């Protein structure tokens, strides 16, 4: 019991510390705390109390301010536990009296805390948290020690405690108490035990808690509650996100599986519309980003857990289309880009995951390449330039997944095999998207023009690699293929090198130089030893002529200018 008391007290302190700035402000700052802001002594401007990071120094500062109150609360809680324990051992009162005393004591402390909030905020917060903790301990004892009433009654007492704490937090605008009330509601199934035996009972209760939290978050504008609520639901759902892997041996009845699917869709939809409404009505803040990211993972978890493998890609694709379609319709009516930005990237994440669910190996590389090429173009046509620019980063995925194809041993078996198709897909995707954006944005200082050049050059590197592999298949012996490839590389490298110098385009210049450095290094380190003398002579002569000719050409161009 003592350990439980310490945990409860620590939980209340932790909840307070995570969201309030410093409660070490003196009583003259109280008006600022009630308004959700304090006055900066250096600038004279009002600053929000909430949303700033807590450091270790702040924790000590919080405890140092009126530290006797915090210490006294802990001592009272321990003394209460020992008093009740002593009374129990000596049979001063029966079980009913003991539990009644616990409820009355906790309620009295909570009431006094609420009254104290009117005058000294920090003291009222501590006492309110202490009273709620005493009630929770009493419920736990009544349920597990004496089996005094069934689980629904214990859940009712817990819910009332949660609602009282939430009401106090809302009345005095103390976000820490709101989070503490969410913690009470989230811990209730664990403390009560039997409340979580059935899926319908557990998730029905969690749905009621979630609805209350969403209302509280909307009314008070404490957006972090949405994210924390999703974390709570995910805690109880984690075993269903990874069926048979994390917790093997759990078998659900058909009816339970139906309930699970119903609650998965309900929670996902509820959080989606809540986040959507939040970012449409106000500016996007860090809690919105956390909630949106958590919602994407939340959706993926349920799809991975309750959808059959053969349908996972289709369901993921459907979820992505639903999120993006609903968000786009809201954007057309409101012209607010916040939600569109958030759920465009979440939908893209789901689309990528759908490809991962459906394909493997080189086929996956091709699918990701098509997605990386088409989505930025579609975003440019339907959404805006900023989103299209961000979506160009999708090329990272096919590049990463194509690494095995670059070094595959199947190239020795011939050209027309999966790795060739995979790298051809990546190359075409890069070049198609790059040339499209270069055609749309010709201004050299435009961000999308610069991004398109990077994409095009990446495609050029893939094209040069394919040329090397194709020549090795079509030309024998091997040093003939290498000779032809190096000559092609020299032409390409010199073209971009000269173009970059003449047009003062550093990116072209550096690309051409990198190719030329490769050619020279390959000739001097590898080919000088492995080529036959005749082919070595031809290769070195032709390459040298191209190098010197490029200098003459460059100077003639400069002279003409």
UniProtKB/TrEMBL annotation:
Transmembrane intervals: 71-89, 95-113, 125-143, 149-170, 177-193, 199-217, 224-242, 257-277, 289-308, 314-332, 339-357, 363-383, 390-408, 420-439, 451-468, 480-498, 507-529, 535-553
Domain of life: Bacteria
UniProtKB keywords: Membrane, Transmembrane, Transmembrane helix
Protein name: DUF2339 domain-containing protein
């Amino acid at each position: 019991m003592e350990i439980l008391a310490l945990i409860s007290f620590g939980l209340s302190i932790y909840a307070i510390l995570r969201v309030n700035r410093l409660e070490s402000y003196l009583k003259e700052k109280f008006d600022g705390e009630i308004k959700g802001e304090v006055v900066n002594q250096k600038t004279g401007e009002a600053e929000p109390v909430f949303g700033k990071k807590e450091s270790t120094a702040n924790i000590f500062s919080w405890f140092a301010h009126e530290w006797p109150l915090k210490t006294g609360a802990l001592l009272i809680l321990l003394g209460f536990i020992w008093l009740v324990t002593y009374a129990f051992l000596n049979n001063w009162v029966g079980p009913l009296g003991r539990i009644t005393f616990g409820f009355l004591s906790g309620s009295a402390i909570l009431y006094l805390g609420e009254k104290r909030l009117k005058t000294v905020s920090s003291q009222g917060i501590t006492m309110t948290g202490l009273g709620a903790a005493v009630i929770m301990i009493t419920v736990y004892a009544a349920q597990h020690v004496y089996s005094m009433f069934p689980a629904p009654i214990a859940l009712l007492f817990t819910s009332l405690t949660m609602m009282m704490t939430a009401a106090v937090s809302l009345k005095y605008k103390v976000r820490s108490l709101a989070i503490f009330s969410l913690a009470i509601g989230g811990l209730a199934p664990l403390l009560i035990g039997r409340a979580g035996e059935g899926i319908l009972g557990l998730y029905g209760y969690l749905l009621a808690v979630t609805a209350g939290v969403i209302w509280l978050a909307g009314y008070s504008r404490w957006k972090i509650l949405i994210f924390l609520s999703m974390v709570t639901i995910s805690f109880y759902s984690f075993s269903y996100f990874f069926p048979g892997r994390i917790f093997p041996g759990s078998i659900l009845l058909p009816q339970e599986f139906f309930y699970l699917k119903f609650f998965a869709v309900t929670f996902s939809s509820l959080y989606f519309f809540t986040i959507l409404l939040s970012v449409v009505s106000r500016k996007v803040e860090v809690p919105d980003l956390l909630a949106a990211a958590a919602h994407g993972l939340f959706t993926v978890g349920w799809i991975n857990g309750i959808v059959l493998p053969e349908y996972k890609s289709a369901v993921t694709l459907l979820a992505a289309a639903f999120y993006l379609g609903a968000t786009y319709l809201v954007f057309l009516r409101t012209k607010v880009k916040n939600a569109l930005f958030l759920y465009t990237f979440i939908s893209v994440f789901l689309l990528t995951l759908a490809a991962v669910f459906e394909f493997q190996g080189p086929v996956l590389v091709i699918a990701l390449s098509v997605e990386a090429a088409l989505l930025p173009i579609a975003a440019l046509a339907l959404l805006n330039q900023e989103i299209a620019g961000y979506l160009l980063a999708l090329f990272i995925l096919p590049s990463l997944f194509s690494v095995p194809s670059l070094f595959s041993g199947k190239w020795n078996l011939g050209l027309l095999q999966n790795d060739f198709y995979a790298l051809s897909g990546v190359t075409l995707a890069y070049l198609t998207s790059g040339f499209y954006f270069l055609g749309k944005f010709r201004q050299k200082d435009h961000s999308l023009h610069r991004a398109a050049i990077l994409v095009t050059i990446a495609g050029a590197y893939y094209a040069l690699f394919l040329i090397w592999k194709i020549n090795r298949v079509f030309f024998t012996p091997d040093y003939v293929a290498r000779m032809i490839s190096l000559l092609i590389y020299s032409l390409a490298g010199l073209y971009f090198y000269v173009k970059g110098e003449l047009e003062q385009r550093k990116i072209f210049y550096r690309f051409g130089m990198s190719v030329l450095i490769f050619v020279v290094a390959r000739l001097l380190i590898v080919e000088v030893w492995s080529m036959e003398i005749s082919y070595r002579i031809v290769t070195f002569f032709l390459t040298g002529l191209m190098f010197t000719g490029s200098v003459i050409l460059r100077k003639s161009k400069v002279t003409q200018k």
